[in-house]
Design a protein that fits this description.
The structure is a homodimer. Chain A is mainly α. Helices cover about 60% and strands about 0% of the residues of chain A. Chain A is flat and about 70 Å long. Chain A binds a DNA duplex through loops.
DNA sequence: GGTTAAAAACATACGGCGTATATATTTAGC
DNA sequence: GCTAAATATATACGCCGTATGTTTTTAACC
């Protein structure tokens, strides 16, 4: 282990950058999980002293906000001029897909207050079609918040950061179903085959359709 | 600072218990916030060595699960025999109210997988009325998951653990509204007065009614 | 071209954290 | 009475975030 250079690196040298820090942090999360993220681990992977990160990031929370921005940047926006309902469905699905590209990192976006500049574009992309569909601004905001709450809640469950009795994988499902039937709770037992099994995709589509159907039934 | 007793305490002495550990942890969260919770802090408040907690709790995560149980135990269940829709509304409101009794602790419940024994009762209380209303078990489970996802998402926003542009308090609202109008994004600017302001209560009721209306429109 | 302020890296160190391990004391059951 | 279990403390390890200070190079200015 040779001692590392100690001053500002010479002109041509590869240098640290905010982008390198953020992408390395995201890679670390993908590989080792959210809880493995530490300033020291990120620095080690970059071959750099931990304190060097602070030249590009205010603190650890700031770093995580940056990673959140990386994730949100992966949302793909539908083309202009589609039917409002089609645009909204596409957006919701694209948001979900973007989060599921990095499931273990998703809670960074979903459970954090983010600076306006990083969420304004998605908001505009949702409110636009809602107004175009004839919803009042007030109702459009209510609708945005209801669908976003549902989507966040669904995604958190999907990445195992929410309470649920459902499980994935056949052997687990069968075992859980048996446990539920053995509780003696009548409704729980009756619904056990469905409570035990989880199908994120269809649950997301079910709730999304439910909300959008309701919103577009009367466009006040 | 006299040296603390070192062995098992004598018979009559006040002794530690799981319940004391959990309630002290909850009190600490209420006073100092979630991030202030550490085994050492809880132990200090109990006048006890940190390692003593491990006689009652497997590890820190287990302690937090226990606190989650404390919170869920504060749900008040509606009486039997009400109209299904009335029961479901009461339950959703009661769940929300229970979480808002300890807003800073709520994320422990909302962003964690919990053991079945602690969530079975609420589940039964939701699925029961849904089946009573004529929903199929499959649809009842979908309905449970959709409303729960929405409720969790709404509550996380309410306790500042979710992305949003809305703010509370008049001066903040006015400032944020100005910022939104200055973005140049047309829909965002048009909806700025509503985007800037947050009204958790009415947003919760709006989404809840939207979901339940849809669910009860056709009872398949 | 020399001077100087800013930039970008490293070095050290502090106080906190969760908890593994070992030990002491008392109790409860046989 | 003996012994195992229960309940407490003591010590220590390896992490963590980051405050503070130092070194080296660059870039801007005269």
């Amino acid at each position: 282990m040779t001692a590392a250079r100690r001053g500002r690196p010479p002109a041509g040298a590869e240098t640290l950058s905010l982008h390198r820090v953020l992408t390395e942090a995201l890679a670390l999360i993908d590989e080792k999980g959210l809880e493995a993220v530490s300033m020291r681990q990120v620095a080690t992977r970059l071959g750099v002293n931990p304190m060097s990160l602070y030249n590009h990031v205010q603190d650890k929370d700031d770093l995580l906000k940056g990673v959140a921005g990386l994730l949100l940047a992966k949302i793909e926006y539908p083309e202009e001029g589609l039917e409002p309902r089609v645009s909204l469905e596409a957006l919701a699905r694209s948001f979900r897909a973007a989060m599921l590209l990095h499931p273990t990192a998703a809670p960074i976006v979903l459970t954090r207050q983010l600076p306006p500049e990083v969420i304004l574009r998605p908001i505009e992309a949702v409110v636009g079609p809602m107004l175009a569909a004839g919803l009042s601004p007030q109702r459009a905001v209510h609708a945005l918040r209801a669908t976003l709450a549902f989507t966040i809640g669904t995604l958190l469950r999907e990445v195992n950061v929410a309470p649920t009795v459902g499980v994935l994988g056949e052997p687990n499902v069968a075992r859980r179903q048996g446990e539920l039937e053995a509780t003696g709770l009548p409704a729980t037992a009756a619904a056990a085959p469905y409570l035990a099994r989880m199908d994120h995709e269809s649950e997301f589509e079910f709730g999304l359709a439910l909300l959008l159907d309701g919103l577009f039934r009367f466009r006040t």
